[in-house]
Amino acid sequence: MSEGKHCFPRCEFFKCAKKTAVNRENHTWCTWADEECNISNCSYAICVKRRLLPNGVCGETVKRKTTEKGPEEMSPPVKLRGKIVKKLGEDEFF
After folding, report:
1. pLDDT digits (tens, 9 = 90+) for 38-61
2. Is residue 90 a part of any domain in this protein?
3. Which residue range is the domain that position 7 belongs to?
4. What letters, b where the CB count within 10 A reaches 16 and e where it falls short, cover 3-33?
5. Is there a domain that residue 3 lies in?
6. The model scores a pTM over 0.85
């Protein structure tokens, strides 16, 4: 995965599970830990869209890398017997 942007406390999808994040002037303060909110080290940081990755990286900013499997990488077909062959109509399942 490519490196994405880090989540920040003022994000509209950020939520504190302890409900202790308070906006003060130009930063967000955690009243439970009595320090500035740091998402990468906080175990109570939650993303409403469920996109928060480890170390505070936002999953919305990360691009996926997908690969196609070639015929040589595919597993061999599985031989089937009994009732399942009648249901599927095939004696080999890929």
Report:
1. 888 888 888 888 888 888 888 888
2. no
3. 1-64
4. eeeebebeeeebebeeeebeeeeeebbbeee
5. yes
6. no
